[in-house]
Structures
1.
Amino acid sequence: MPGKRAALHLERVFSSEECQLISFGYIPQAMEDHWFIYLEDGWLYLHRSWTGFCIYQVRLEAIGESHKIAEAWVNRDREQYVNKRDSYDRTLLSYLIDRVLLGRETAFPGDALLRESRRKWWQLWNRY
């Protein structure tokens, strides 16, 4: 993770079963697999598979049988990662954990964010 980074405020708690799945990480198998994810010393690292750039870091902290996200960081080096919206990064990070690591059927966040942007534009347009 480069020095140019930002804290993401993401509150999630994972059961011991979910933590076991998260600990397996994800190794890309094909060109379509865009992420390389691994857990090391309590930190979850999410790298872009093609460039190797670390985009997200998440520290997991034990709370009884479960684990919570204690801190999360996003890469803000514009030469490595161009997005600068924390709201999108929180949504994408949650999606990656849910879909890639936990195997849940989850819609890609870009679809929901696009629908929300269109809805807001339509509301503004109809005011005039």
2.
Amino acid sequence: MAKQKLKLYLISQNVNCGYDTYDSYVVVAKDKKQAKRIHPDNMQYDEEKKEFKNETTIRAWTNDLGKIKVELLGIAKGNSKIGVVCSSYNAG
């Protein structure tokens, strides 16, 4: 069975905006579902609690997966690892 190629996704949201928030980031993931469950701080989404695991940085992003936009950018290089590549943070 061939190894699944990882993809690059642009993730964005406009729920939490303003100072000290992320507006978008690029992530390496297997698919769109996994991509939107990676927080810009590289935290994983807790499926039981329906939130990202670290509450102190939640205000910088959204817990509402339905409000997160995911756009496929392309295929990641063969040695890429799942996680955030770069992010856009609006410091205050």
